[in-house]
Structure formats: C-alpha cells, structure tokens
Input
Amino acid sequence: MNNEQYGASLLQRVKAILLQPRAEWPVIEAETTSIASLYKSYILPLAAIGPVAGFIHAVVFGNSFFGITHRPSFMSALSSAVVSYIFTLIGVFLMALVIDFLAPRFGGTANRNNAFKLAAYSATAAWVAGAFQLIPGLGMLAILGLYGLYLLFVGIPVMMKAPEDKALIYTGAILAVGFVAGLIFSVILAPLMLLTSSVPEVGNGSLSGSVNVPGVGSLDLGELEKAGEKMAAANERAQSGQATTLPSKQLAAMLPAALPGGLVKTNTHSSGTSVGGVGASSASASYGDDEKRIDLTITDLGIAGSLATLGGAMNMESESQNGTVIEKMGKIDGRLTTIRYDSASKDGRYGMIVGDRFNVQADGYADSIADLRAVLNQIDLDALEAIGRSGE
Output
C-alpha cells in the first residue's frame, strides 16, 4: 500500500468510526490486526495530532492565560509535545489492559487484541478534536473528544462480547479503574518526565514573541517500528502469564551498600504495581546525610520502556545554561540521557534509559557531572542491558 492509499484508508476509517460507529465496530471486530500493526498504522499517526497542534499553537500564537501570552522557546514546546505524545501512547496501552481485565467481570470475554482495538478506535474523537488547538479561540472545542465515551459504550458489546445492558456500567468501571491505574502509573513512571527536565523553564521563554530555534533532529521511523515490535512481544509474554517486570525486591538487591566517598546506604524503598498482568516496579536508596546525600533509583518500566525510547527516536538533543545550572538531553553511549547540574550548589541529577526498559537515576550532591555519572556505575548496567535485550 502506497502513501496515498494508506492516507485514504486511514481517513475512511476515521470517518466511519466517528459517523457510523454501530456499523463500523462489527467491521473492526472481524479484522485480524496485530497490536504492533495497530500502533504503527493507526495509533501513532492519530495520537500525534494533539501534541503537534499544541506545539504549533505554542510557538506561533503562544499560550494565553488571564490575558497574558507566553511564547515558549522552540525546544521547550517541542519537548513538551514529545512527552505528551509518549504519555498518550502509554494511555492507550493502559486503557486496553483495563478493558481486557474487566471484561469477564461484566459478562464479557477477555480478548487482548480486541481490547486494544476498542481503546484505540474509541480514542479517535479525542485525537481528531486535538486539531482545534491550531485555531486561536477554538482550543476549548477539544472537549468534543468526549464523544469517545459514546464510541466506547457502543463498541463494548461488539468487541468484548459484554451484554448490552451492562455496557454502561462497564464503561463507567473502565473510566474509574483507568483513572486509578493512571494515577499509580504516573507515580511509578515519573522518571519519564526527565524528558522535559533538560529544557529551559518558563522564565526562559519569550513574552515578546521571539522564538529561539536550536537544531532539531528527524523522526526515526525505524525506532518507532522497533518500539511497536517490543510492545507486541511484551504483550505476548503477559498473555502467557510471564512477568513483564522484575520484582521490586530484586531491583533493590541491585543497589549497592555504599557509594564512593564513604556514603553509606541509610534507607531503601521499593514498590510495584500491575494492571492486567502488566506493570512497573521501582527501588530506591539514600546514601550519606543531609549535607552530602545522593538518592539512587532503578525503575523497571516494563512495556512502557519501549515507549520511553520514542524520545530517542526523535533524535532530539538540547543543552541550556542558566547561571550556574546546566541542563542537557540526548543520547550518550547510545542511551537516552538527561542531566541537570548546578556547579554552585554541587547538586544535580543524572538519568538514563538502559536496555530500552530501565530508568536509572542518581540525584544529589556531587563534585562534578562526571562524579554523578560514576555513581550509576555502581549498578550493574550491563546486567540491566542484557535483561532489556532478552525481554526476560
């Protein structure tokens, strides 16, 4: 299928699900589509509408609030759009797991592929409505995306085989459980927000309307395809009952007892959660005291780790300095890395994605960025890399 045919097919599906959902859901249910293909052919392009529209609006018109317009720097707006895009993709994944998990509890049939199709196609209204952000004054029309709740309601009996008289309460349960799951994952997946930590703060944007345009890399479609393949493989493991993340206690065991400079471990914390058999886990430890303290964290992002690498697929690099504070984002030794360091207070943060799955982060006091990076070497990064590659 060439680009023109693909575009026509995509537009036809969008129009059909929005205008004739009761007729289109049976057609969708009969299709044999893998999760990876669904991401590549439908979710990835449509989920980008809102972030791209928001990015263009921010750099062209600025963001207005109570009569004050702020025009962010180009890279700040772009980084925010990338993170928004990543979390939109993760949101589809979480919603699909919730739909599949709840199906038997409302007289339906669990079907992971159908759950993904239901989550993706019911989100169409919200994604298309995101385009209203391009037009000043019409951004509030994005609320029309709530039509997606109706699409979800209509699709449940067809896709998940739940009785029609239970579709309404099933829809409500999906929203409730999805909301709670989202809150839990937002805490455990907080390291992903490092993707925006290396761009200038709001104060570094321009209220005068000027735009700072540093170099911007291209989107690596190959990396996007790899991410889809990894998610599909992880999904198959989840369906077969295999764990998709390491136990938090196993992560805690990988944290060293002490760090160079005589910093001894003072406390540890570990946590984990899962929805529909897929989850994330994290372990952290504090070293030293309040005068010279470093926190070391390992987070197993599981399937979401593949999505985190989309930031790297954008080939984005940024570097800024505000007084004594330097912030960087980009690939170092092939790993997506974020750095923030204040040479005056000697306080900083160094984080990286290892094996397209684990986020490791050192946060605290260090004499230099190199010393902060050396702290991460106290973790067996090669072992994490191997686990990430093997998908165990």
User: Anything to note?
Assistant: The first helix runs from residue 3 to 19. The two ends are 35 Å apart (CA to CA).
